[in-house]
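seq/struct pair 1
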Amino acid sequence: MTLANFIRAELYSTMAYLKIGMDILFEKENAAADMLQAHGGLFKVKGVAQQILADALNTSVSVMETAGEGGIGF
């Protein structure tokens, strides 16, 4: 167990429930999303949480310049 792996696990755990909810929307409710726009403190570091979220939801994710406040927007 390294610090990097611990932090990676924490980042993945922040996306787990979002992924479950989005899977329900995408598969059972036939919703679609071409792109998500992320904002909030988690996305202040460029590229890290953005890539994990994009991989989890299998869609592109953009991050606003003012990524310091809020949550995830559609």
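seq/struct pair 2
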Amino acid sequence: MSAKMSASVEINKVSKVFGEGEKRMQALQDISCTIPDGQFVCLLGPSGCGKSTLLNAVAGFALPSSGDVYAGGKLVTGPGPERGMVFQEYALFPWMTVAQNVAFGLEIKGMAKAQIDERVHSLLAKLGLSDFRQRYPKDLSGGMRQRVAIARVLALDAPILLMDEPFGAIDALTRRNLQDELLRIWGETGKTILFVTHSIEESIYLADRILVMTYRPGTIKRDLSLNLPRPRDTATPEFNELKRELSALVMQEQQRHLEAEKRAVCD
């Protein structure tokens, strides 16, 4: 991570409204929090609580209706080089090889070819992709495609990494391998990570801090700092006590979601 670039995130009284009149829907309401350099934060909550909307506000893809977001000490007015985004859908170019996908952003930046080749080679080795550098996305498993997507973002060396349920569509064993790989990368680079998930176990396994969000409009229901030692064992009493506590919080919001859907049907 570049020593010249701050990696903090400040969210200040952010609200987001979609639509107007009868179609008006408030997705976020008055959210404030500060994420310091190097912290791994998970946004946790049921579908419809605004996790991805908040992440997109930090990414600069969907600016708040009110309030401000600062990333690296700068007001977010759109996407920027201090933030890298990993999506659930991989977002790879199907006509490019693995190596070409990872190199793409560096080429756009105008980096010298020798430097690009060196960085791509290093990242593919770290992520276990060296033997697949000339393969195309269609020839890879879901887990490998997600490794390529992560490598492409890491190539740009953004100090803030934003991840929108990146392992949600991957089988359990591959997911755990990718979680461990992400933790290793985070430990080596010290990047700030904001990670959206609906998995309670995943959030406890990964995060320094968990922000539990309420069902619409999304607010922060609980801001929980974790002090569990790493690497974390999902079978320990401490892990499972946290899992029970968070399950109760999330289920309360899931129940609110179901009740809102019932009222909408009746109306």
